[in-house]
Amino acid sequence: MNIILYILIFCIGALFGSFFTLAVYRIPLGKDITHERSFCPNCNHRLEFLDLIPILSYLFLGGKCRYCKQKIRPRYFLLEIMSGVVFVLFALSLNLDILHTDMNTWIYFIFGILYLASLFIIAGIDKERTYIQKSVLLFGFIIQTIYIIYLYIVENNFNIYRYVIYLSIICILMLIDIFILRKKAKEITEVTPRIQELIDDMFETMYDADGVGLAAPQVGIRKRLVVIDCGEEPLVLINPVILETSGEQTGQEGCLSVPNKVGIVTRPNYAKVKAYDENMQEYIIEGTELLARCLCHEIDHLDGVMYVDKATEMMQIDKEDEEA
Question: Is 29 exposed, middle or buried (0-12, 13-18, 19+ CB in 10 A)?
Fold first, then answer.
């Protein structure tokens, strides 16, 4: 009976692993992780159940998209295996038994895998990410807090110190998050389907927020990529470099990463930038006034610099008045 139990736990862990890969990509982009269906990034076909679970895909489809035959990255398959193994090891450490395990141990196991889920997602935000999403940290914090309250109610000899350590891990990650936005973004060498999807998602995010510019680090991707639309035409800037600036302008500036605030910032009134478009063709863009300000602001993001570092004065504004 216990063999069946541990096989079931492994399968649950593997399914969690598939969910982790989805959450790691979608959460930084603010996309739905439960109701929105997934599509193949190469052929854009809607993925079915076997396609969505890499283990099943490798078993029944040879690890390829059934439509375009593009190979699924092995790391997704390995993450599912690792997730299943971790769940089994956790269950073994608790000596779970269908017939003899008490209710408190089962509750501990359930809260434990939910806590592990938050840590898995944090760890899964790979080297391309610049910061851990606070919604994930908050999930882990809430789960651990609920469990501590439960233990306080049911246990006679409740030792809070062990669980305070768990909460401290989440708090430390939240503090680290404050500083990691300062990392420099990495150059893009080719526009893959994933990069193209990122470009589309960034435009959608920018328009939804009524912004005029957005850099990839603002959505958790450490790539040198900027999208801008100051009202003339949408611009995609890959690996942008400022070649020349002149003049000076001082005015209010906001940012989607610092909501409900604006600052007084002095920027060049003219900027000349070299960048690559979606086809990796080099081009030169020149701008004055708003476009120049936007170019300098977004390229600063790629180097870990935020407008608050340059603002001489910061002001609180109503959310509906923010332009970002």
Answer: middle
**pLDDT tens-digit readout, 10-53:** 888 887 777 777 776 666 555 666 666 666 666 666 666 666 66
Cα angle: 144, vertex 149, 152; to 5 degrees = 125
Global pTM exceeds 0.85:
no
Q: Which of these is catalytic: 80, 253, 298, 322?
A: 298
CA-based nearest residue to 83, from 5, 4, 9: 9
User: How far is Cα 13 from Cα 29, in angstroms, rounded to an integer?
Assistant: 25
**Among this protein's residues, is 155 annotated catalytic?**
no
Q: Which two tokens stand for residue 103?
A: 């209710």
Per-residue H/E/C for 106-163:
HHHHHHHHHHHHHHHHHHHCCCCCCCCCHHHHHHHHHHHHHHHHHHHHHCCCCCHHHH
